[in-house]
Specification:
Blueprint: E1 2-8, H1 15-31, E2 39-44, H2 51-60, E3 67-77, H3 80-92, E4 97-102, H4 110-115, E5 118-121, H5 129-148
Parallel strand pairs: 1-2, 1-4, 3-4, 3-5
Amino acid sequence: MRITIVAVGRLGRTTEGALAQDYAERATAAGRALGLGPVEIVEVEGRKPGRDAEGEALLTALPTGARLIACDEGGRAWPSVSFADRLGRLRDDGERRLAFLIGGADGLSAPVRQAAAELIAFGPQTWPHALVRVLLAEQLYRAATILAGSPYHRA
């Protein structure tokens, strides 16, 4: 199951960008034998500022046929083991592509939320969108290690 993180904003060579890319590469390596990955990060920019333009850019950049999961503060917060189990079930149920959507500083537009099959959150706090990219990539890596039985995740 190919996994794409589609995120608003270009992090470039920032600390957050490097860390998110590192975790995406780790998730790809750890998930390869499990049928998870590769994990790629696609960065988009709205043609104009604001949630609607960013939402349009997110939806335009989606891989064809991908199941959409949007990162939104109103979404469900999954414990890491449950998140891993969810990814494993999606893979086992035949999902071939999964796309996680991360909006900009103003959040996601209504059309993006409506297009998503589900919404996930990283707790009740509000996180900078650059850090959400890191958190998501790390959780994808953690999920692969949980499914592989690796000691990285210690419950």
